[in-house]
Amino acid sequence: MLPTIKADTPLTVTDSLSTGLFWVGILLYFGIPMLGWIATLISMKFYPLDDKKMVEIQSEIARIKAEA
Prior knowledge:
The protein is built from 2 helices and no strands. It is an all-alpha fold. About 0% of the residues are buried.
């Protein structure tokens, strides 16, 4: 049986952690970065950058540097 802690009692180092708190910690530590990684992959998939566009961008950057 897990010990219960009153809401007005602050946690201390000697308090045991519940399994719910453990899974919330795991979700925050691993789940949130995974969601960010998946969002990055989706955004890269639909980003309109191909070989021709990259050459256009590089030549524009070179032109701007030559003018400076």
